[in-house]
Amino acid sequence: MKKLYSVLAVLLLAAAPALAAKDKENAESLVLPDVEMIDIPTAGILDYYGFMLKTRFYSGGGVLGGLNFGVQERLNLGASMSVDKLIGSDSGVKMRRPEIQVKFRFYDGGYYVPAMAVGYDGQGYYYSAADKKYLEKGRGLYLACSKEVGVPGLALHGGFNVPDFDNNYLFGFLGLNYTLEDQVAFMLEYDSLFHADDPERLNAGTRIYITPYFQLDLGMREIGRSDKFANGFPRKAERIVQMRYNTSF
Q: Among 176, 183, 123, 116, which residue's Cα sits nearest to residue 151?
């Protein structure tokens, strides 16, 4: 973990001058809507000409990188790729195949009805070279709904997804986040619902808005989990660190 923190420190120091200059030019800018939480998607999308760069550091020295673009008013396109054992002294660095993401927001929501978006996300987790697949499947085809509830800054997210078109299982997901004065957000999500052979996941995290354009996520996935996948690979809680940078072009 010390090497991971060193990498984060270098990246933050390198980005700080550019981010500070950007904020001075846009002093009145507000935090942009979140397009995702820890794992689950929201109905939020990037604006037309919007751009998001994401880097996630996960267990075993792995790094997941992603790019997302607002190519139309309501349409986002992106791609991601993971690299196992990139950080640290372990040998056997492995680059996994790129995966695509698509999201279309077809309804902006009303007083009673949440905003809605449909999309596809092929990015999974825990790649098994022997099985040539992700042990935690990608989101696949999904419907995501989001709505502010109760008090300002408190948002509820939920939806359904079909990750595997061979089995056509329908999964569900729920999430709740509270944003405090556009400075920090607290996230809780319950993922992979409805099927015992692919157990549900409880994730939690904190999102720190260092600037309106740059966020740092500190999260815990699979809280309370301590078992194995079907192939015997250990399945347990993991800490993640994620950085996201939003801008426009």
A: 176
